[in-house]
Amino acid sequence: MMGATKGLCILNAGTQQEDPLFVQTSQLSRLRDISLSKCAVCGAGEKGRIAEACPNIREVDLSQNLLSSWDEVTQIAGELALLEALNLSENKLQFPSDSLSLTGTFSTLKVLVLNQTGITWAEVLWCAPEWPVLQELYLASNGISISERPTDVLQTVKLLDLSSNPNINENQLFLIAYLPRLEQLILSNIGLSSLHFPDAEIGGKTSMFPALQYLVVNDNQISQWAFINELDKLQSLHALSCIRNPLTEGSKEAQNTRQLIIAKIAQLKSLNKCQIFPEERRGAELDYQKAFGNEWKKAGGHQDPDRNRPNEEFLAAHPRFQLLCDKYGTPEDGELKVQQPFMLKNQLLTLKIKYPSQLDQQVLEKRLPDSMTVQKVKGLFSRLLKVPVSDILLSYESLKMPGREIELQNDLKPLQFYSMENGDCLLVRW
What we know:
Helix content is 22%, strand content 14%. The protein is α/β, with parallel strands linked by helices. It folds into two domains: 24-280, Alpha-Beta Horseshoe (Leucine-rich repeat, LRR (right-handed beta-alpha superhelix)); 348-429, Phosphatidylinositol 3-kinase Catalytic Subunit, Chain A, domain 1 (Ubiquitin-like (UB roll)). The chain has an eleven-stranded mixed β-sheet, covered by helices on one side. Strands 15-14-18-16-17 form a five-stranded mixed β-sheet, with helices on one face. Helix 7 crosses helix 8 and helix 8 (278-298) crosses helix 10 (321-328). It is elongated, with a radius of gyration of 29 Å.
């Protein structure tokens, strides 16, 4: 039966007999990707037959099959000259116990998925020389411990998934910290609780993970803001996902936690897959100053630069506070909040109201709750002006930033979200 097939040796799941149907179709030569997940693939079949039947295959899914060794995988891949992506998840593979001789079999491979294959870190490094252009490597749920630094291997990897490997700790991560092209690192569900970059001082940048742009630390044990402070030391970090951690799940005010993270990580542009707009960042940073301004003063902070000497404990807990003072100016006593950070109280704002397109309209003064949403403010002016709510556009000018107009773009956000204060000017257009 083996000689009758033109491709992989596939067992029929019901009869456990070899099934030649896969290779009897004339359309295989035009395929570019193929999924044989759960097909009981157990070998490569007659040499040369796969290459004859499937010359253009670039992506292959062999997950949840009966492959038992890396040699079998090498045989199959050797028939696919254009192979770029290979999924071997949930095959209990026997990997080489020593370095391999280079065969060029995986010379075009860019994506390799080895989740739940039982591979060790040492075996990854032994096989890695065979993957000279690999860009994405998935190693989830293998019980991996990172035992040594990759030297002259994995240097092209841009994405590394180490999720659900609970043996990995902070010190082990430093062994992969100098992969030069690593842009995405997925560390979900590894039990991570702390992180510290010893080469960077407070407010400085670490030389570790120089290219890292996207970090995923979902489902861990992160409970301290010191962890978030450390992430600001990553020089290229633009996106972070950190849901389902004690730090983020324990708060009743999810929006408050989001604003704190934004204020603490300067270069962040996306948090938990939600884009951070400039207006949101500005509001988060100004509120951060107000929320911790009293603590800053008690620690030795002062509006007078010559007398501004916050202690080391405050600087360690709030490493960006002084940078925010340089950006926006030091908070005045009247702005400092006594309540807990970002608690939205039903306080009244006294605002000037202008109608820029109606020059004959007098400037008014109104008191609005700072918890009032943009949508409700639009509804109020819709009734006052007798115009459809959909036609109304709102923006405001801050006393602190004269000449700059800030749009109120999100109808669901309260006025306090935009850090509006007494005396600011609300601009109403329609």
